[in-house]
Amino acid sequence: MFSRDALSYDPIPLPDRFEISDADMQGAAQAFFEKMGQRHTVRDFSTRPVAREVIETTLRTAGTAPSGANHQPWHFAAISDLNLKQRIREEAEEEERRFYAGGAGDEWIKALEPIGTNAVKEHLTIAPWLIVVFAQRWGQFEDGTRFKNYYVPESVNIATGFLLAALHHAGLCTLTHTPNPMRFLNDALDRPASEKPTMIIAVGHPSESATVPSVAKLKKPLEEISSFF
Questions:
Q1: In total, how many domains does the chain have?
Q2: pTM value?
């Protein structure tokens, strides 16, 4: 990460080397594919608690993601306090009401119909944890002097993907939520102007009556999402 100190290039031997045979490689890839294929976006959460230690470990996983110049330009605000979750829900629903009242446009609203969403966001208070992802557009030294971060959206997106995979691996369900605009999250969570909120992730266990929209199981086949040369 960035420092005022003069940091020089100092290569060290690869600290973690995994030897896996060619024969076992496909099996490992297939097992992970099947594991991730069981991940579902859930809107119906149970009130069953989730230990803070689990959230901390999954955030450590997110922190291992690659980033531009290794600046790690992200911050994750994890919230279990009910009053704070209620505040976030109220402000998010205010933005969502404007969205569904016409701010989104007809095409966007029509695209959301098979998903079954609306302006009511109960998951923001029922889920035991909310994790708000912030992108650090620039960094600051203790004296307030700024330094530039690089490839911020790309880096934060990769770290968020790591986090979602880690939460699923831990047996938890998630819902990604992006009210627009999200500046109210800086005020609610006392984050600096240098950070841009990018997503709210609701985290917990599914309720007994949890459902998912049938269209969520429709995934593009390999030939549509990839090309080989």
A1: 1
A2: 0.94
